[in-house]
């Protein structure tokens, strides 16, 4: 047979994770917390299972969960998504992203992807016969040149993928960025896939600019979100997609045959848990403390960095330490220093040879203390 994805290898998160375990390294590579979720949330899932919610959920998701998601978006971003027609619960944001791309990208369609890019976009486009068109952000601070963006648009452009807060750079889109995007797309029929899995992890009192805050953009957009990131339960693989009904109808045509529906008791639990807005609104402060602890510890190190504006990732530039490539340095850090991180070239910036590693600070203070000690001694 001919591979549909000849360039694709096992993901960096799988290979680095294994290397970290094999060498007994402290793992700040893949993005997941090494502390547990709120016991109340866990007992709500148990409660749902003990009360018989163990059969298929509705295909679109448990209605009570869709209802509370709709209220949450409306209260945060003043945009109404109808729970019946415009919200679907998915197996994490990954399935939402894959489903939106599969439902809309035809062979030969172009999809604009901003580099560095999270690793699941490109293969999802290619397996559907689409063509990723990459837009490189600036080397110094990962900013988008919107004129450059405009030049990437052709009559074949079907979709644009954005990700704010951005993995791996920690950059967030400003209101001006969103307005630029909105005005560039104004007279086109281009769709937007907005990956907002870190929507509740934004620092220094900045505002998360969801596409749903901009009515013209929201009319052409899929918002993809993840409960895994927000409630410290990445292993549950729970997320959702919100989009206007004319887009959601097509999305569901794929969703119903890819997974049909999502783990039912967890949806019941989340519907209950989300009623308390503090459960997600306090996340910014929670993670800002961790970012600040990590970065304060590195003040006298040889690393250069700009504080992450959002996500639970921090990029560190190691060009004052070694000339090794990011893969070589990340591998040596695991084997010799017992500390795992992700080389930034895994996010499709390999043509630039950036001397940058990504560290996940969603970790207990003791883990961050240990990481700081290792990194400061380099
Ligand atoms: N998008 C980005 C930018 C991510 O970092 C991740 C990793 N969690 C995902 C999507 C996938 O989210 P989920 O685990 O909910 O599928
Ligand atoms: N989003 C996580 C990260 O960037 C990884 C999730 C995965 O392994 N696919 O680290």
From TrEMBL:
Keywords, A to Z, come to: Aminotransferase, Pyridoxal phosphate, Transferase
State the InterPro entries in the record.
Aminotransferase_I/II_large, Kynurenine-oxoglutarate_AT, PyrdxlP-dep_Trfase, PyrdxlP-dep_Trfase_major, PyrdxlP-dep_Trfase_small
**Aminotransferase class I/classII large domain: which residues?**
26-373
Kindly name one Pfam family recorded for this protein.
Aminotran_1_2
Essential cofactor(s) = pyridoxal 5'-phosphate
Domain of life of the organism encoding this protein: Bacteria
| DNA-binding keyword on record | no
Q: Which GO terms describe its molecular function?
A: transaminase activity
Among PANTHER family, the record links this protein to: FI04487P
Protein's name in the database:
Methionine aminotransferase
Q: Which organism is it from?
A: Maribacter cobaltidurans
């Amino acid at each position: 047979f001919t591979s549909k994805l000849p360039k694709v290898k096992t993901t960096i998160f799988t290979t680095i994770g294994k290397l970290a375990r094999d060498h007994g390294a402290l793992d700040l590579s893949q993005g997941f917390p090494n502390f547990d979720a709120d016991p109340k949330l866990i007992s709500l899932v148990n409660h749902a299972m003990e009360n018989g919610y163990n059969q298929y959920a509705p295909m679109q998701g448990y209605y009570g969960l869709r209802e509370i998601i709709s209220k949450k978006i409306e209260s945060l971003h003043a945009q109404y998504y109808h729970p019946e027609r415009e919200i679907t619960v998915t197996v994490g944001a990954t399935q939402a992203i894959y489903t939106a791309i599969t439902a809309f990208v035809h062979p030969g369609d172009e999809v604009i992807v901003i580099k560095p890019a999270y690793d699941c976009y490109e293969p999802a486009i290619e397996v559907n016969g689409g063509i990723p068109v990459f837009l490189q952000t600036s080397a110094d601070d990962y900013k988008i040149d919107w004129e450059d963006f405009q030049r990437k648009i052709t009559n074949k452009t079907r979709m644009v993928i954005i990700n704010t807060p951005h993995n791996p750079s920690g950059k967030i889109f400003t209101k001006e960025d969103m307005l630029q995007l909105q005005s560039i797309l104004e007279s086109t029929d281009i769709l937007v896939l907005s990956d907002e899995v870190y929507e509740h992890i934004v620092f220094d009192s900045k505002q998360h600019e969801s596409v749903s805050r901009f009515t013209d953009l929201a009319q052409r957009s899929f918002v993809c979100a993840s409960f895994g990131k927000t409630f410290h339960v990445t292993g549950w693989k729970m997320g959702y997609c919100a989009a206007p009904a004319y887009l959601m109808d097509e999305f569901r045509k794929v969703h119903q045959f890819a997974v049909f529906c999502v783990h039912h008791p967890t949806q019941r639990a989340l519907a209950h848990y989300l009623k308390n807005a503090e459960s997600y609104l306090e996340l910014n402060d929670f993670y800002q403390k961790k970012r600040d602890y990590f970065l304060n510890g590195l003040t006298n190190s040889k690393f250069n960095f700009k504080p992450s504006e959002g996500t639970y990732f921090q990029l560190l530039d190691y060009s004052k330490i070694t000339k090794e490539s990011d893969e070589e340095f990340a591998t040596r850090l695991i084997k010799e220093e017992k500390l795992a991180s992700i080389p930034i070239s895994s996010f499709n910036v390999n043509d630039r040879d950036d001397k940058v590693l990504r560290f996940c600070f969603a970790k207990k203070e003791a883990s961050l203390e240990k990481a700081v000690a290792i990194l400061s001694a380099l």
